[in-house]
Structures are given as C-alpha cells and as structure tokens.
Predict the structure.
Amino acid sequence: MGSKQPLKPGEKILFGIFGVFIVLAVISYVILEVVRQRSDKPMFESKTTYVFNELGQQGSAIFRHARCTSCHRAMRNGTNMGLDLDGIGSHRTLESLTAFLRDPEKNYPSATIDHGPAPKEAAYVAQMSDLEIRSLAAFLSGLRAETGSSAARKPPEEQSGFIDNMLKLWAPVEWSQKYQDVRDPQARPAPATNQ
C-alpha cells in the first residue's frame, strides 16, 4: 500500500473555503432560530385559514386517521411528500374535490402518483363510503388561502416591491406589452353581463 499524499495548496484552500461556508451557515441558522424563538411576532405571517363546518371537522379526523398526513401536509401538519393541501379550498371547489376523491384518475388532467386504482398506495381513498368522501372534501374545501399567500389563486391586489423587482430582473421586456398585470384592477376585463 502506498502512503497518503499530502494535500496540495489549492486543495487546502478549497477545503478551507468550504469549511468556512459550513461554519457560517451553522452560525447563521443558530442566530435565526434564537431570534425567531424570542420574537413575539411570527417571522412569516400565516396566510392560510381553516374554517370547517361539522362535516369538515369529521373530514379532518378522517384525514388524520386514514394516514393522509404520511404524504400530504394540511393545517401545517404532515409531510410534503405529496401535494401541500393548505389553501386548496381557495382554488378547488367542493364538487371538484369530491369528484377527485371518488375517481382520481378520471378527474385529474394526468395520471396520479398515489391516488387511483390498486396497487397505488392511496387506492383506499376512492373506496371510502360516500359520507367519508364528502367529509374529506368538506375538510379540504375549508383549507383557504388569503390573497398574497403562495397557495392563493392570485397575488395581492396592491403593488409588491418584491414581485416588481423580480419582474424587472427576470421577465423579458416584451412581456410588459404582451401580458397584463393581474394585480392591476384596471387591467382586468370587465365581468360579462347577461342582457
């Protein structure tokens, strides 16, 4: 066996820089967590709400007991292996959620990963009773997102420095002539009237 070669000066410098970045990242994380835990005000404002009727409350219990949280996140609980469901009630109707739960493959634009016929892992959802499916759909439709949330259908009405700066940095100039800003009430088409 040969002896170990010592590190070259360039390798030492690269490992040193890498080590400094790791140390700075750990220190920054610790500082952020200390500030977050000592702050009276949340660092990130929650823009999702949960308002359930009695059927929705039953659906919440079914959601937890049926192991839906092993793949999905709802009410800030569960995992992100599947779709994050917080705010889904803001862009899916009760009817569309019910239809999806009953027959996922028929009511989704593409093949689903885990919902659908067996042997898919969540095949049991479509085989639940009608009341359980309606309860789950009522629960999901109660997961709402306020305008401005990442789960909302549209951005906040008012101007946003962050969004405006990102558009200036990344959007081609031609887009300003081709597309209208959905945040601008003047740019929205007037609702159709039946005369």
Q: What stands out?
A: The longest strand covers residues 48-50. The chain is about 40% helix and 5% strand.
